[in-house]
Amino acid sequence: MTRTFHAVFLGSLLALTLTCAPLDAFPAPGTRAEALADLEHSVTERRAEAVVWVANHGTIDDQPLLLKRLRDDSPFVRGYAEQALWLLWSRSGDGDIDRLMSAGVEQMQGGQLKESIATFSEVIRRKPAYAEGWNRRATVLYLIGDYEGSRADVAKTLALEPRHFGALSGLGLINAAEDKGEAAIEAWERALDVNPNMSSVHQNIEEMKAKLAQDNI
Question: Is the CATH code 3.40.50.970 the one for domain 93-157?
Answer without folding.
Answer: no
